[in-house]
Amino acid sequence: MLNGSIRGRPRHALAALALGLAALLPAVAGATSEVLQAADKVLVVKSEHRLYLLRGGQPFKSYRVAFGLNPSGHKEREGDYRTPEGSYLLDGRNSQSDYFLSIHVSYPNEQDMQHARRNRWKPGGSIMIHGLPNLPRKSSEYYHTADWTDGCIALTNDDMLEVWLLTHTNTPIEIRP
Hints:
Strands 5-4-3-10-6-7-8-9 form an 8-stranded mixed sheet, with helices on one face. Strands 1-2 form a two-stranded antiparallel sheet. It has a single domain (5-176), classed as Beta Barrel (L,D-transpeptidase catalytic domain-like), CATH 2.40.440.10. The protein contains 4 helices and 10 strands; from the N terminus they run ββαβββββαβαβαβ. 28% of the residues lie in helices and 26% in strands. By secondary structure, the protein is α+β, with helices and mostly antiparallel strands.
C-alpha cells in the first residue's frame, strides 16, 4: 500500500482500468443496452444507508453507503462531519483522487450558502461520492460498517466503479434524511 498503490497495483492503473471499461460500454451496449443505460437521477436515503440509481423514476440499482462521522441532520458548516440533504448535481469527476474514484456533489447550493451567511459560518464543500481510501488507515471491516467520511458518501470500490460507469456529469442527486 505504499506509493499510492492499492493491493499491489498503482492507483493510476486502477483509474485507467475504470476509464477503459467506460470506453468499452458503447461496444457492449448492443447486447445489454438495458443494463448499461445510465441513471437519470441518484437518490440517497441517509436513514437507510442506501444510494439508489434511478431511471424513469424507478430504482434499478441499490448500494450500501457510509456517510460523515455525524450523519444525522443536514450539513450546515465546514467541519460538522455531516452529509448534506437536498437537491444537487453530480457536477465533476476525479479519477486521481485520494479515494478510489470520486464524483463531486454540487454542495453548497444557494440555500446552503444563505444559511451559512446568516450564521456567519463557512458552508464547507468538497462533498463527493467516492470509494475507499487509496491509503487506508483503518481495517476493511471498519470501512464497511461505520460512518467514516468527513461528510461525503462512500461506497466499496466495486460499487463505486458501477456508479461511476452508470452516471454522467450533471446527473441530479437528491439526498434525503
